[in-house]
Amino acid sequence: MAPLRVLLADDQRVVREGLAMVLGMLDGIELVGTAADGEEALALAAEHDPDIVLMDLRMPRLDGTEAIRRLAERGPRPKAIALTTYADDASVLGALRAGAKGYLTKDAGAEEIRAAIEAVARGDAALDPAVQHHVVAALSIPSEAAPGQAAAPLPDDLTPREAEVLALIAEGLTNAEIAERLVVSAATVKSHVNHIFAKTGARDRAQAVVYAYANGITGSSSTG
User: Fold this and answer.
1) For labelling alongside 160, which of 8, 54, 64, 97 has CA 20 to 30 A away?
2) Shared domain check, 125 and 42
C-alpha cells in the first residue's frame, strides 16, 4: 500500500519540528510538508494534495478552524484532523462543525496519532475520549428517562436499529466492528449508516458523532 500523505500545520516551530520528527518515524506515513499558519497550510495542501492535514487551531493570519472550513469547501480531499493543545467546548465543536474528521490533543502519543490518521483516511471519525466528554458537556445532553418513563421518540425518523448503529458510531466503532457487535453483515451495517447519514444530514462519521451526542443517542440511551 502507498503511504498516507500527511501535511502538518502548527505555528510553534519547536512543536512543528517535533511532530514532524514523530511522523517521519511512523511506518505507512509520508510527511509531505509543514506549515506555520492556516494560509500556508491551504497553499501547501493545493500543491501537494495530501490525504490528511494535521491542523493546529490557534495560528496567526488564518486560524486552524477557518482553514479546515476552507479545505472542506474544496472537496473531500484532504481530510483534516485537529491536533491542538485546546480541548474546550468551543474549540472542539468549532473544528468538527467546520469539517474536521478527527480531534486530538497534543498529549496524544505517536501510535494514537497514527491510529487517528489511518481511521480518518478510511472514512472513520477519530475523537479523543476526552474530546467526546467535551462534546457531551457542550451540547447539554438531557438526562436519560427515569425507570418506567416512556423513552423520547427518536429524531428524524430514525429507527431503533439505526439509533443503535449511530450510538456505536459515537463509540468510535468501525463498520466491521459494529457488524461483529450486532451479529449482522457488513453490508447491512453500511446500509444502516447510509440511511443515518441521509436522515440526519451528516456528511461523515465525525458529524454523525456530534449529532448522536446532541440528541442523546449514545450507549444505553439509544436502546432505551
Assistant:
1) 97
2) yes
How many Cβ atoms from other residues are within 10 Å of residue 66's Cβ? 17
Nearest alpha carbon to residue 31 among 11, 47, 53: 53
Query: Cell 453490508 belongs to which residue?
Result: 187
Q: Are 210 and 97 in contact (CB under 8 A)?
A: yes
73: domain range? 4-137
Task: State the burial class of residue 92 (Cβ atoms within 10 Å of its Cβ: 0-12, 13-18, 19+).
Answer: buried
Which residues are registered as beta bridge partners of 102?
81, 126
Same domain, 146 and 187: yes
Q: Are 91 and 98 in contact (CB under 8 A)?
A: no
d(CA 27, CA 166): 32
Q: DSSP letter at 51?
A: S
- pTM (2 d.p.): 0.67
List pLDDT tens digits, range 19-34.
999 999 999 999 999 9
The torsion defined by the Cα of 44, 210, 57 and 80, in degrees rounded to 10, comes to: -20
